[in-house]
Amino acid sequence: MNGNRSRKLGLLAAIGCLVAVAAMFGAGVGVGGAYLLLRPGAAAQPPAPAAVVAPSLAPEVSLPSAAANPSVAVAVDRAGPAVVTVINHLGGGAALGGNAGTASGSGVVISQEGYIVTNNHVIDGAASLEVVFADGSQAPATLVGADAFADIAVVRVDTPVPSVAAWGDSSALAPGDTVIAIGSPLGDFANTVTAGVVSATGRSIESEPGFRMEDLIQTDAAINHGNSGGPLVNLEGEIVGINTLVVRGGGAGQSVAEGLGFAIESARARTVAESIIAKGNYPRPYLGVRWEWVTPDLAAQNGLPATYGAYLSEVSAGGPAAQAGLRTGDLVTGMDGAAFDEDHPFLNRLLEHTPGDYVSLDTLRDGSRLQIEVVLGNRPSA
């Protein structure tokens, strides 16, 4: 209040000085938007005091709370304590003394009952498993079940878990969204945090001949060996993906790439994990065949009459394929009227179905084209 009064007095004093100068030189002086015309020798009349107008106030703005403005640090605080290192004590034959060394990956606790999600390839070949929690404590783990096609496995510990991570909605992700990878790269740097963005969604990568992993999240968050099985989280600290692989390129005639990491979308990972927890496996269709994936190069080298297909090298007696009349040496070129190709290989098309489904297989046999209907069985657990 005193400061305002001082400023007003100073303003009035300045106005008085200007009026006095105008009276001396007979000039017009603009004051506060008015123009005073003073004749030489005329008595200066003090201007009427201007009305004091209260300054307009900006509308009150509510600042976002910390919960409405998440950060990488907040997300890591929420999800980090639930991330573990998975130690795979590999089984070996008698010649190896029963132990072939160890491998490691990452995982994330998804329930208070001790269930932990990781990759199938992290636990593959394990004689025994253990996990290392974020605080450094260790516990033995047992394998609940795994699905090689989704590259998802579930292990369980019987000890109390320090924290549980929440599932997020992978379908809400868009390119440019911030995501964070947490895991143990190289097995030595536990709970390493790397951040980046969603580079793309819905990616498809051939992980083995004749099979493509589909609906992957691509990210430039650094993912290295040992990060496999760890979570990709959003800024809420929710699991939106399970990190599974990285593409580096290289090889003859290829450039080396960086920042090409891929994660299994949480919608698929959660569905598979919950089925494993409930039933010990994820139901997959079964034909009862061994097969080799035929590509255009292979077809040309062997004089085969198709560019893509599944060559049946073995048909198991009594299996669904044998019961339907398929034979060793048949070349299956399509399913339900749609031909196989690079982006729609045999195994991916098969896995779109569930046990009990009828499928029609376009088949080449000794130069003849056949359509053979098969009732798919239930793939036996490994």
Question: Which labels suit this protein?
Answer:
alpha+beta, Thrombin, subunit H, 4 domains, six-stranded antiparallel β-barrel, 37% strand
Give a brief description.
The chain has seven helices and 22 strands. The chain is of the alpha+beta class and 382 residues long.
Helix/sheet category: alpha+beta
Question: How many helices?
Answer: 7
Low-confidence stretches: 1-46, 52-66
What kind of sheet is the major sheet? 6 strands, antiparallel, barrel
The number of domains is: 4
- Class of the largest domain in CATH? Mainly Beta
Protein described:
With 382 residues, the chain is of the alpha+beta class. The protein has 4 domains: 2-37, no CATH class; 72-156, Beta Barrel (Thrombin, subunit H), CATH 2.40.10; 170-269, Beta Barrel (Thrombin, subunit H), CATH 2.40.10; 285-378, PDZ domain (Pdz3 Domain, Roll), CATH 2.30.42.10. 18% of the residues lie in helices and 37% in strands. The chain has 7 helices and 22 strands. The strands form 5 sheets. A 6-stranded antiparallel beta barrel has the order 3-4-5-8-7-6. A 6-stranded antiparallel beta barrel has the order 9-10-11-14-13-12. Strands 16, 17, 18, 19, 20 and 21 form a 6-stranded antiparallel beta sheet that branches.
